[in-house]
Automatic annotation (TrEMBL):
<dbReference type="InterPro" id="IPR044956">
    <property type="entry name" value="SKIP35"/>
</dbReference>
<dbReference type="InterPro" id="IPR036770">
    <property type="entry name" value="Ankyrin_rpt-contain_sf"/>
</dbReference>
<protein>
    <recommendedName>
        <fullName>Ankyrin repeat protein</fullName>
    </recommendedName>
</protein>
Length: 386
C-alpha cells in the first residue's frame, strides 16, 4: 500500500510544467481524488507511509526546482503542492523539518516558502535558524532572504562568522546589509582575521565601531592568534591598518601582548609581535640599521671590488644602501609600518638627511623623506608611497 501511495502522490503532483496550465477545477479534482484514495486506504496506511510519501513529493522539488516552469510555486501550481503536502502532514508525516532543512540547503526557495506555510498552518516547529545556516553555507541568497523575511530567522552570528572564516564575501555583505549588532560584526572580524581572510577583514573593519574595537582590541588579537592555524596575515593586516584609528594605541596594544606572560596568548602570536610589533622590535630595527650603515662605510672605504663605490654619485650610493629597505617598507601596505621596519627607517632617514628623525612617526612620512634621496629611475619597481 505504501508503494501505491507514493505513486498516487507523485501522479497528483504530476508534471509541474503542465500543472501551470491546468484549470482550477482540474486541480481540485486531482486533490479530491488523492483525498479519496487516502480515505479508502484507511488504517492500511501508517505514519511511515505518509512520511515516506512526503519525502518522495519533496525530493524533486528540492533538487530540480530550477528545471521546472518558473511559475510552479505560485497560483494553481502552488495550490497543488500545498494541498498534497498538507494532506500528507494531516495523515501523519513527521519529516517536515527535515525536508525543510534540505530544501534550504539546496536553495529551493519556493519549496522553503511552501513548507513554512504548511508548518504555520499546522502549528509545526521548523528550525529556521538552522536552515539559515545551511542556506548561507551554500550561498543561497534568495533562500536566506525568504527565511529572514517570511520565517523570521534571527540567528545571524553563527552563519556570519562561518562565512567570514571561509571568505564568502557575498554572504558576509548580505548579513551586514541586513543589519548586524556591533558584537556580531566584531566577532565576524575576529573570525576573518584568525583565518587570514584579509579581504573580508578589510570589508568588516569600517563597520565595527571604534569604541568596540578599543574595548576589545587585546581580546581580538589574542583570539585571532589562538585560532590562526599557522598564518598571522590577518593579525598583520589589522595592525598595518591601524585598526584602533590611533597609531600610538595600535602600537601599544601590540607591545602589551608581546610583553604579556598570559598563558592564553598563543606562543606564535607572542613571538610574531615581539619580532615585528613591539618596542623591542623598534630598538632592534634601529640597531640593525646602524650596523648596516657601518658595514656600508667599511665596504666603501676598504672594499676590494673593481667597481670603486666611492666614485659613484651620492644618490647611487644611497640607493645601494637603502633601496632594499625602501622597497620593503613600500610594499608592506597599510597605514602603519611594523615597529621593526619603523626602527630601520628612523635610522636610515637620520643618515640620509643629516637630521634627527622623529621617533614618534609611524613611518609613512619618513618613507617619503627617504624617497626624496633616491634616484627616481630606480623607484619604478617599487609601489608608490602615499
Amino acid at each position: 500500500m505504501g508503494f501505491e501511495m507514493h505513486w498516487v502522490s507523485l501522479r497528483c503532483q504530476g508534471n509541474l510544467d503542465k500543472v501551470t496550465h491546468s484549470s482550477a477545477i482540474e486541480i481540485q479534482l486531482q486533490l479530491s481524488a488523492f483525498k479519496t484514495f487516502l480515505d479508502l486506504a484507511g488504517n492500511q496506511l501508517t505514519g511511515k507511509d505518509f512520511t515516506e510519501s512526503f519525502d518522495a513529493a519533496c525530493f524533486p522539488l528540492t533538487l530540480f526546482s530550477s528545471s521546472f516552469d518558473l511559475g510552479w510555486a505560485s497560483g494553481i501550481s502552488a495550490t497543488v503542492i500545498q494541498g498534497l503536502l498538507g494532506m500528507l502532514v494531516e495523515g501523519g508525516a513527521d519529516n517536515v523539518n527535515q525536508c525543510f532543512l534540505e530544501a534550504s540547503r539546496f536553495g529551493s526557495t519556493e519549496l522553503v516558502r511552501i513548507l513554512l506555510q504548511i508548518a504555520q498552518r499546522n502549528s509545526l516547529d521548523v528550525d529556521v535558524d538552522l536552515a539559515l545556516g545551511f542556506a548561507s553555507h551554500y550561498c543561497k541568497i534568495g533562500t536566506m532572504e525568504c527565511l529572514v523575511e517570511e520565517g523570521n530567522a534571527i540567528a545571524f552570528l553563527g552563519p556570519l562568522m562561518r562565512a567570514a572564516e571561509r571568505g564568502c564575501m557575498q554572504v558576509v555583505q548580505w548579513f551586514v546589509q541586513r543589519g548586524c549588532r556591533d558584537m556580531e560584526l566584531c566577532l565576524a572580524l575576529t573570525a576573518a582575521t584568525s583565518s587570514s581572510q584579509v579581504k573580508i577583514a578589510a570589508f568588516l573593519l569600517p563597520h565595527v565601531p571604534q569604541h568596540v574595537l578599543a574595548a576589545l582590541s587585546i581580546e581580538i588579537l589574542k583570539a585571532a592568534g589562538e585560532r590562526s592555524g599557522g598564518s598571522l596575515d590577518g593579525v598583520a593586516f589589522l595592525l598595518q591598518s591601524d585598526f584602533l584609528g590611533d597609531p600610538a594605541a595600535t602600537y601599544a596594544v601590540a607591545d602589551s601582548i608581546a610583553k604579556s606572560d598570559d598563558e592564553a596568548v598563543a606562543p606564535e602570536l607572542r613571538a610574531f609581535l615581539q619580532e615585528h610589533w613591539s618596542e623591542a622590535a623598534f630598538s632592534a630595527g634601529l640597531m640593525c640599521e646602524q650596523n648596516h650603515f657601518v658595514n656600508m662605510v667599511m665596504i666603501l672605504m676598504r672594499g676590494g671590488s673593481p667597481i670603486c663605490l666611492r666614485d659613484l654619485p651620492g644618490p647611487l650610493r644611497t640607493a645601494i644602501t637603502y633601496l632594499p629597505l625602501y622597497r620593503e617598507c613600500a610594499k608592506s601596505g597599510g597605514r602603519l609600518l611594523s615597529q621593526r621596519l619603523r626602527g630601520h627607517l628612523v635610522e636610515a632617514v637620520r643618515r640620509v638627511s643629516g637630521q634627527p628623525a622623529d621617533k614618534a612617526s609611524h613611518g609613512k612620512d619618513l618613507l617619503n623623506i627617504l624617497e626624496q634621496h633616491l634616484p627616481p629611475f630606480l623607484l619604478g619597481g617599487a609601489p608608490h608611497v602615499t
